[in-house]
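Our example pasted here:


***
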Amino acid sequence: MNRKKILISIILILILSLLFILGKNYLVFPKQKKEQITTGVNPGNKAPDFTLESLYGKKIKLSTLQGKKVFLNFWASWCGPCRSEMPDIEKLNENYNKIEILTVNIKEEKKKVLDFIMTKGYTFPVFLDKDGKVSNMYQARGIPTTYIIDEQGAIRARHTGILDYSKMKELLNLENVK
């Protein structure tokens, strides 16, 4: 009887050991990769990076603005709807200093854009997309086109057409921000 108990005990220990070893292999989970966000122009995508020069010669690289919300607006001075929303962009610029406003003029001569901005008295930042590469990258086929980019560099909203001040605030989620 003792031999039988010893034999059963040994078999049981072997089975438990085998289960432990096999179970351990199955319990080891592969390291999870940090979630990669795809670069693109749709909400949820990482905003494509670019560098542009302002009307006054200041260069800006979009990726350097991480940590801030960005209001990115593509426009042209000949575009009636673009001109219609500019007073509200100016108001946004005046009232919310924690928002980076980047207005991007598409394929117009610097002098023409500067004259237009100076005549209207706008103070928001204007950048020049002289060759249209950035507007093409952002698929800004109809203008005005506006993107809202969050603090992590991801696109949160895209809007083609005129935005009024209240819609700008809504897209930027600015209810309690100054």
Summary: The mean pLDDT is 89. Residues 1-30 form one domain. The radius of gyration is 28 Å. Helices lie at 2-27, 80-95, 110-120, 133-137, 165-172.
